[in-house]
Fold:
Amino acid sequence: MSLKLTEKRLAAVYECLRAFAPFCGWKLPPADKVQFIVAKTRNYVAAHCKYAYTDHHIIEVSEKMVGHFDGLAVAMAHEMIHMHQKIRRTTTPNTEHNAEWHKMAKRICRRFGWDEKAF
Structure:
């Protein structure tokens, strides 16, 4: 059985992860300040973006690519790293995952018991 995704459920998983280290120390915005979208694409699992010149963050999760809770938690944590880097302005132009992102991903995967290769 596939997990039914809703914007409310995406927000709930985001808030759950935000309560755990390292996310709780990152000063990420609360869920009510983030727009959550259930996408209907097979082109990606999840994505984070931010409107230019604003603090408005968007996290999308594809209902076609995520069907179970563990996959949703992994996808959300992945995008939360992107959000954290965007807020801190530590992204690297023309690079989706820089060295800092990989270091944070490795730490998070170890903490939560997730496969780094699938993260």
User: Anything to note?
Assistant: Helices lie at 7-18, 69-88, 99-112. Strands lie at 34-39, 46-50, 57-62. Residues 7-118 form a domain with the Zincin-like fold (CATH 3.30.2010).
